[in-house]
Amino acid sequence: MTTRTGQYGVEPDTIPYHEFKKHLASPPLSDSEAVKETLKALRSSNDAKTLAGRERLMAVQHHLVDLLAYVEKKSGYTLFPGERRKCVAPA
Description:
By secondary structure, this protein is mainly alpha-helical. The chain contains 3 helices and 2 strands; from the N terminus they run ββααα. The protein has a two-stranded antiparallel sheet with strand order 1-2.
C-alpha cells in the first residue's frame, strides 16, 4: 500500500505488483541489506515451516493487519472487503 492525494486529501491506495517489483529493484530498497536478506530467505524456502525468520515475518503481518484495520476505521472505507485475519504460528 501507499498513500496518494485523492478527492478527500491523502488516501491509502494499493499499487500493482509490477510497480511493487520496480520499487524493490530501485534504491533505496535495492540497496537495503535487510530487503536482500528477506528476499533471499523467501526464495530459498520450500514452505512456511522452513522459512528462516518466519516469526519476524509473522509479527510484521500482525502489525500490517492492525494498521490496515486502523486506517480503514479512520477513513471510513475499505479497499478490500472481508475479514482481516492474522497468520498463526505452525504447531
